[in-house]
Amino acid sequence: MGILRRRHHGQDTSAFLHPHVRPGDGHGCGIRCRQDREKTLRCRMAQGSQHPLRQQAHRTARKAVYSQRAKDKGGCTVPEVSVVIPNLNGGHLLPMCLDTLRKQTFRDFEVIVVDNGSRDGSLKLLRDTYPEVRIVSLDRNYGFAYPVNRGIEASRGEYVCLLNNDIELDTRWMEELLSSLRNHPDAGSAGPKLMRWHERERINVLAIRVNLDGHVEIVGAGENDLGQYDEEQFVFGVNAGASMYRKAMFDDIGLFDEVFFASFEDVDLAFRAQLAGYKALYVPRAVGYHMVGATIKKRRYRPTYLNNRNSTLFFWKNMPGELIRKNLPAIVGNRMGIFLKRILKNFWKLRTFHYLRGTAAGYMCMPHILRERRQIQEACRVTPEYIESILDRDFV
Q1: Which of 14, 25, 89, 327 could anchor a disulfide with 120, C-beta 3.0 to 4.6 Å?
Q2: To the nearest whole percent, how much of the chain has pLDDT over 90?
Q3: What is the pLDDT of residue 297?
Q4: How many helical (H) and strand (E) elements, i.e. helices and strands, does the chain have?
């Protein structure tokens, strides 16, 4: 694999992710929720000397034991892959999603639907039409991070796929993601080429790119697919909408941060994974089609609030201190520039209020940020130079 580059009209332009890294290189939650998370992190830090690949070997051995026990008892073997689908009133979307799972070329998997208190008959649909699906039923809408975490905890596979209910999959989606993770033991996650459902030649999302100032970009969003992103490549992180993760990675670094509720939780996880030495892969042979906007509800300003709050959280929680000190003038200047630009552009609009409210809420969570930051940075297994090499240096 070479560097993932954009090829347009025969020209090979600059690498769109992190050009310095090639395959083979080294590498307001409640008090109870915070206490549980801190306890879990302390346990992981105590086990931090154990290499991720050794943990994976132990997990594989445990899986073999569980599989043999199931055979001895006449039961079913433990699946290699678990697919976790969060759902909120998605009864009209689930058949498309689940039917494409039934057509996957790779068959050794289980499906877990975590229902966020749906009232549209989703549970009845699952029980009547998809009896093979395991259901985790919640009493209300908990966003994205919480239900996904409950699904991961209930999963039995060595690998976990997270899948939005509004995505249609190519038949080889799971097989291609799994093959890439098997071929790259230093990778903890793999993401597909995700296209738009209504415009199948237009890209929805390929991967996550993060700048040194914490600005996040969705790679490929809105572009026509002309073959410019057809090389498998290491990326900073993958979108959680249709990607595969090693469960050993979750065991090591923890699950999604439930403080985020929804938005940027996959960016936060990607950053923590990189700090712990787990790489991420973009796999263009795995393809999905996202029905963009199908699950967005009427609360039009809620995403503005969450995006700005969570972008503040993930940056100060994860960015190595050495990089902040080294680039502080540029970081402060760029973040202030973006802040003022957005305020002035939408000064008389209600969106500005929610933008300010989200930014303020992010800094009000600073005690939570600093606690987790200290634990994450102390458990870091890579150098600041490595992190700097995989961040996009071009400020917006």
Answers
A1: 89
A2: 60
A3: 56
A4: 14, 14
Residues 309 and 361: beta-carbon distance below 8 Å: yes
Give the position of tokens 């109870």: 32
Which domains are seen in the chain, by residue range?
Answer: 5-290 (3.90.550.10), 302-390 (no CATH)
Dist. CA 68–CA 49, nearest whole Å: 30
- pLDDT at position 20 is 34
Nearest to 86 by CA among 132, 169, 133, 143: 143
pLDDT in the model for residue 332: 81
Coil/strand/helix, residue 320: coil
CA distances from 8 to 43, 201, 206, 344 (A): 49, 15, 17, 36
In 254-395, which residue ranges form alpha helices assigned H by DSSP? 265-275, 302-318, 321-326, 328-345, 350-364, 366-378, 384-390
pLDDT-derived band at 395, boundaries 50, 70, 90: very low
Q: How confident is the model at residue 359 (pLDDT cuts 50, 70, 90)?
A: confident
Judge contact between 78 and 157, C-beta under 8 A.
yes
